[in-house]
Design a protein that fits this description.
- This protein is of the alpha/beta class.
- Helix content is 28%, strand content 24%.
- The chain contains 10 helices and 15 strands.
- It has helices at residues 11-21, 64-75, 98-117, 119-123, 158-161, 187-197, 216-224, 238-241, 273-285, 307-313, and strands spanning 2-5, 27-30, 34-37, 51-53, 57-60, 85-91, 137-143, 148-154, 206-210, 227-232, 246-250, 262-267, 289-297, 320-324, 332-338.
- The strands form 3 sheets. The protein has a 7-stranded mixed β-sheet, with helices on both faces.
- Strand 2 (27-30) and strand 3 form a beta hairpin.
- Helix 2 (64-75) packs across helix 3.
- The longest helix is centred in the N-terminal third of the chain and has 20 residues, at 98-117.
- The radius of gyration is 22 Å and the shape is globular.
- The mean pLDDT is 96.
Length: 339
């Protein structure tokens, strides 16, 4: 069984998403975590899964040292000693710092044990949240109480091959960016999407921002030295309008076509989800951009199945495609990727 983590308020939507993807697959809710389900991971896209633990196993460990031993048993002889691996270890119980302190003690015990038994495995353990490469393996361990939890082992190249499901961030949570100079907090969605994708808008690149006002999604590339073509009926914040790297056009975001292929399409426009889906698919089919970040916004919950259209039609048009309810999202999902 694979374990798919979700926020408590989105767990029912994740269950529906899994049923649509594999109607006959067995699944059960794991209180406080998400959904455990038995289905094929290859080709699967889940907007409401914050993190995926392939072939997760429930375990019991009576002590700090026993937890460290369980982790060693799951990695030694399985992960190549000469290839990098990462450990995601976190608590999912209680309040305060007791669970985090226990995880820190487990990590310390693990290091001491590896020094004595598996020095090569210790040397290949890396601390990073960079996107996975084909050489990196992953061990995920969740404590649901001081003595119970789940362990998942992902041997390379699985973490890289399933990047749309397996986040390089522990439990799939990305710290929200902070910049009080931005026009609004909406910029955090753009930055989080970049972090999950493992690439960002860079100096000298050209970015089209559809539905740009008041300018939070134009603000980020401008700060980085990129050129922005901002499309909206309303102007952006005054300082952005004065910036020489901003090229503002009064136009309909859904009708605009760039004169040539741009480096990035970004779009956080308020629109019905079907319109945003159609817009992204049109840009993908016409190959108008090299990279993209687009928000799909919802009013309620009944339109979530529309995301299946993107899963089916956008994936073949992309070298890499992600569809995720970000930590920064409200009732919305972000599609981002590489054409």
């Amino acid at each position: 069984m694979h374990l798919f983590l979700a926020e408590p308020d989105t767990s029912p939507f994740l269950a529906d998403e899994l049923r649509r993807a594999a109607p006959d697959a067995a699944q059960r809710e794991i209180e406080g975590l998400g959904i455990a389900a038995d289905l094929k991971l290859e080709g699967l896209l889940l907007a409401f899964a914050r993190q995926t633990l392939p072939d997760a196993v429930e375990i019991h460990a009576a002590s700090i040292n026993a937890w460290a031993d369980r982790i060693i048993e799951a990695t030694a002889g399985i992960f190549p000693d000469d290839q990098p691996w990462r450990l995601h270890l976190w608590p999912q119980y209680g309040e305060g710092k007791a669970g985090q302190h226990r995880c820190e003690l487990i990590h310390a015990s693990l290091v001491e044990r590896l020094k004595k038994r598996r020095r090569k495995l210790l040397r290949s353990l890396v601390e990073s949240d960079a996107v996975f490469d084909a050489q990196t393996s992953l061990l995920q361990c969740i404590l649901t109480s001081p003595e119970t939890g789940w362990i998942s082992t992902s041997l390379a190249p699985q973490p890289a091959a399933l990047r749309s499901l397996i986040s390089s961030f522990p439990r799939g949570e990305v710290p929200l960016a902070d910049d009080k100079s931005a026009p609004s907090r909406a910029f955090t969605k753009l930055v989080e999407s970049e972090q999950r994708l493992g690439r960002q808008i860079e100096r000298g690149q050209t970015c089209v921002d559809l539905g740009a006002s008041p300018g939070s999604w134009s603000y980020v590339p401008i700060q980085r030295g990129a050129n922005v073509i901002a499309i909206d009926r309303s102007e952006l914040r005054e300082d952005l309008m004065r910036n020489p790297r901003l090229h503002f056009q009064v136009a309909d975001a859904f009708k605009y076509k760039p004169p040539q292929t741009v480096d990035w399409l970004v779009c956080d426009v308020i629109a019905a989800p079907q319109r945003s889906i159609d817009l992204l698919l049109e840009w993908l089919r016409e190959k108008r951009m090299r990279n993209f970040i687009v928000t799909i916004k919802f009013k309620g919950h009944d339109e979530y199945p529309l995301l299946d259209i993107l899963k089916r039609e956008a994936t073949p048009l992309c070298a890499e495609f992600h569809l995720t309810r970000l930590c920064a999202n409200k009732n919305e999902v972000c599609a981002f990727g590489v054409v």
